[in-house]
Amino acid sequence: MDENNKQKILGFVNHMLSIPNIRSEPPLIREGLIITFITKNLTQIRSTLASGDFFPQLNPDETLKMVFQVLKQIVINDVKPEIELWLGKGIDFGIIKSIYPYQQLTPDDYRSMLSTFINELLSSNDARYNFNSVVNVFKYRVIERYASKFFERRGYIFNAIRRVEKNTMELHEFIEFSKLVFLIKNIVFMKVPIKTDAGDRVVNINDIFKFSIPITKLIKKQEMLLLKHLPFVTSKLFMTASKSCLKKEMTDTDEASARLFYILASRYQEYKHQAVDRGAETLDKSWYNVAKQNHSFYGFDDKMVNELYYIAGDNLW
């Protein structure tokens, strides 16, 4: 494709990104909205791209591939600086290394390996689309705020993690552990080759029901993929991360952390920070209020949602 056409595609993508109801969203959500819009209006978009004003000499489907590639790169370029900031200043890799020691690696080695892994994670479409919760969890210090409160309260969440899951980490360790879980959890959305009843397929967590794939069979393959990048990750850490993408009924009794992270990820995937009118219910409290009334539908642990609701209310979150 010549340079003129590349510039036209860039212009087309930037035009889509500038649409008011899309422009106001964070980068990863903008990408999803544009892809949804194009998919729903595929016939019209193909005709537009094949018109004299755009690319009459090119195959519309090939042009669309280029549009998606350019959009993907713009979005990745938008979010990567923030991610590198977290990896540089937002995580205590000394604590991570003390929890998950591995050979002679330094904390900087852990940071470098994680950075490389996240770059690959972001190249996967499904993994990237579900990464917005991670961005918000770090941006708004969600783990630090909420963990400190349920450690202080010693209520249902704390006891489920400490006594049932038998996670004996102290608060500062649990915070860094939680951040690591969020950074690797979207491994379940990366596609891996696997044998199914329909033959050999390249699949991820979204395909388990379509192809009747046992969840354990799929995540074992994904664990092998993760360990190539992050050899210090233990099976317990991996299972917590992978199960944090699943509804309550797909977790075991002793996987309380996974159920907690599933709720927090759901809360912050489409979170938009905004001012609250005086006297109105705060953003988190309002969300948890709806969530606790519909916990069965969403697959949330109802007792956890209820405690998060009270924490949000007590702290005006």
Question: Secondary-structure blueprint of this entry?
Answer:
Blueprint lengths: L2 H15 L2 H4 L3 H14 L1 H8 L10 H31 L2 H7 L7 H17 L1 H5 L2 H8 L2 H12 L2 H9 L6 H14 L7 E5 L2 E5 L11 H15 L5 H9 L12 H14 L13 H11 L1 H4 L3 H13 L3
Antiparallel strand pairs: 1-2
Description of the structure:
With 317 residues, the chain is mainly alpha-helical. Helices cover 66% and strands 3% of the residues. It has helices at residues 3-17, 20-23, 27-40, 42-49, 60-90, 93-99, 107-123, 125-129, 132-139, 142-153, 156-164, 171-184, 215-229, 235-243, 256-269, 283-293, 295-298, 302-314, and strands spanning 192-196, 199-203. It has a two-stranded antiparallel sheet with strand order 1-2. Helix 1 packs across helix 5 (60-90) and helix 10 (142-153) packs across helix 12. It starts with a helix and ends with a helix. The mean pLDDT is 94.
